[in-house]
């Protein structure tokens, strides 16, 4: 949550992909349901890709603060279950109601994009979610999504290293630390390369679209030139035809 989301304007901007996949293409009232099954209605403004009216009531009711995060789960048309992730790690008065600092379902949802089509064992993902939450970020988010073997390998090795670091004792050698550091640096390098490759693909697609746009402009200009010629020829033929019709029979 940014300051504008929880104070002053009370305005929540939404991700364009989220809006495209889960929301209609017109202004509409949507329902937010908390873990106590209490419902709040907010207005979604399609041009702004944001919610406004009613959002302030939700913020105040759940004591949202700057830095908190929300996970939206679509349960019905324009109806979402909302899970709250607190940044201060304090559950406060919410523990009994289920709005604890990090809801289990929210934790499971965090790495969904990487989990999709993964062949990793299910026991890996809770550990990975915990690791992401401890870093307050989705790790390896820039890895190429299509290369599932690479993603699985890096996540598996990262969890293995994290487990070994947690099990650290005086018998752990410097060589082991060096090996872990080397592996993590290699993972970071692969992620950077993946991000660069994605950027290059996007750049290539943009250039292709720009080239198509130039071709279309050229075509339009040619049509603008040709149409008057054809119009003049048509008018000339019509005059000749009229002369023939007007001539004595």
From TrEMBL:
Signal peptide: none annotated. One of its GO terms (molecular function) is DNA binding. The keyword Nucleus applies. GO terms for cellular component: nucleus. SMART domains: B3. It comes from the Eukaryota. Gene3D superfamilies: DNA-binding pseudobarrel domain. PROSITE patterns: B3. Residues 225-249 are annotated as: Disordered. Its main location: nucleus. The keyword Nucleus applies. InterPro entries: B3_DNA-bd (IPR003340), DNA-bd_pseudobarrel_sf (IPR015300), REM16-like (IPR044837). It is found in: Nucleus. PANTHER family: B3 DOMAIN-CONTAINING PROTEIN OS01G0234100 (PTHR31391:SF101), B3 DOMAIN-CONTAINING PROTEIN OS11G0197600-RELATED (PTHR31391). This is TF-B3 domain-containing protein. It comes from Kingdonia uniflora.
């Amino acid at each position: 949550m940014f300051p504008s989301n929880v104070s002053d304007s009370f305005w929540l901007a939404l991700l364009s992909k989220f809006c495209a996949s889960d929301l209609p293409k017109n202004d509409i009232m949507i329902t937010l349901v908390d873990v106590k099954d209490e419902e709040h209605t907010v207005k979604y403004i399609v041009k702004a890709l944001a919610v406004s009216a009613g959002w302030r009531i939700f913020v105040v009711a759940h004591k949202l603060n700057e830095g908190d995060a929300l996970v939206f789960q679509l349960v019905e048309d324009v109806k979402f279950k909302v899970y709250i992730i607190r940044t201060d790690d304090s559950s406060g008065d919410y523990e009994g109601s289920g709005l604890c600092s990090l809801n289990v379902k929210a934790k499971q949802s965090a790495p969904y994009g990487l989990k999709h089509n993964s062949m990793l064992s299910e026991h890996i993902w809770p550990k990975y979610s915990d690791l992401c939450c401890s870093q307050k970020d989705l790790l390896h988010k820039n890895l190429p999504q299509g290369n599932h073997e690479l993603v699985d390998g890096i996540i598996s090795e990262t969890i293995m290293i994290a487990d070994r670091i947690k099990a650290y004792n005086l018998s752990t050698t410097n060589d082991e630390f060096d090996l872990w550091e080397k592996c993590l640096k290699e993972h970071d390098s692969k992620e950077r390369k993946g991000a660069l490759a994605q950027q290059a693909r996007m750049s290539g697609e943009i250039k292709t679209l720009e080239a198509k746009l130039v071709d279309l402009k050229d075509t339009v200009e040619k049509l603008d030139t040709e149409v008057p010629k054809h119009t003049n020829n048509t008018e000339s033929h019509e005059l000749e035809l009229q002369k023939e019709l007007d001539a004595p029979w």
